[in-house]
Design goal:
It is a single chain. With 271 residues, the chain is an alpha/beta fold. The chain has 10 helices and 15 strands. It folds into 2 domains: 13-146, serine acetyltransferase, domain 1; 153-265, 3 Solenoid (UDP N-Acetylglucosamine Acyltransferase, domain 1). A hairpin with a 4-residue loop joins strand 14 (239-242) and strand 15. 44% of the residues are buried.
Length: 271
Amino acid sequence: MAKPKLDIARLDPVWQRITEEAEKAVAAEPLMGGLIHATILHHADFESALAYRLAMKLSSAEMSEQILREIADEAFDAQPDLAAAARADLVAVYERDPACHRFMQPLLYFKGFQAVQAYRLGHWLWQEGRVDLAYFIQMRVSEIFGVDIHPNAVIGRGIMIDHAHSIVIGETAVVGDNVSMLHSVTLGGTGKEDDDRHPKIGNGVLIGAGAKVLGNIHVGNCSRIAAGSVVLSEVPACKTVAGVPARIVGEAGCAQPSISMDQILKTATGA
């Protein structure tokens, strides 16, 4: 006797919401029907849709969409945590970005979300010893999205990169869970040393636009780095740093800066 087919959408509320939003979007704007059907409604689950989207964005004359799709499908089958992290990232974008009004938007339109998921694919390839494919993914992410994340970097879940232009994350960088950063952030080294040379960002950290964190230093959990700052030394947990070079200017101001997204530096009088 054949087993009953499972309704994947009902087991996956993120995917269910995406498909419901997609159906409404097609009804409201039929000219978007081709893209939305190809990217969302033709797929049985989130993993398949994400693999397709990444393949379409990263493909080129040098590497076909079909080959990239097979690589992504293989990765999601072998490592379910990849899609779990993608779901966490998508929800993080929806909750923290005021320009995101639907779950389907990051999957379809937001290069920050797409770049992080492509990095995750490259990181899986790197861990599997498929170094040249990982470098190819890194190259295409840089070319297409303007985001350069080394495939050996370690990045947690619930990541939101807003606007995402000119992001650089180095080879030995570590980024914790529930981190938010804006455009033009660099997690870089300080010279030509060839060892553990990049920053370690704790959980719940908010990194403002244009901030540079350089060297093998630790940024403590739930801290804030003000826009345009250059961080060259350790940052304690739950503090706000600002300036060039950055110094502690106060407390973080809340329990989860990366979620509140409050980037205003308040004076002692609250002005």
